Amino acid sequence: MDEAQKAKLEATCSCGSGKMYGVCCGKEEMCFCGSGKAVKDCCMVAPEAHGVDPSAVKE
C-alpha cells in the first residue's frame, strides 16, 4: 500500500465512520469508536482524539 492510498483510507475510514473493516482495513467486521475492541484492532487515525493513550497502542 502506498502513502497516497493509505492517506485516502485514513480519510474515509476514520473512527466512527461505521464502514466495514473490509473497506478500511481488510477485515470483515465492524469496528468503530466505542465498539469495545482493542485500539490496535481498529482502524483509528488518531487514537488520542478518542481518549486513548497513543503509547498504549501496540501493533
Quick structural summary:
24% of the residues lie in helices and 0% in strands. With 59 residues, the protein is an all-alpha fold.
Topology (elements, then pairings):
Layout: H1 3-12, H2 21-24
How many H/I helices?
2
Helix-strand category: mainly alpha
* H/E topology pattern: HH
Provide the residue-averaged pLDDT. 59
- Give the CA-CA distance, first to last residue: 17 Å
Low-confidence stretches: none
Structural domain tally = 1
| Rg for CA atoms | 11 Å
Describe the global form. Answer: globular
**Beta-strand content:** under 5%
Could you characterize the architecture of this molecule?
This protein has 59 residues and is mostly helical. The protein has one domain. Helices cover 24% and strands 0% of the residues. The protein has two helices and no strands. It is globular. The mean pLDDT is 59.
What descriptive keywords fit this protein?
2 helices; globular; mainly alpha; 59 residues; single chain
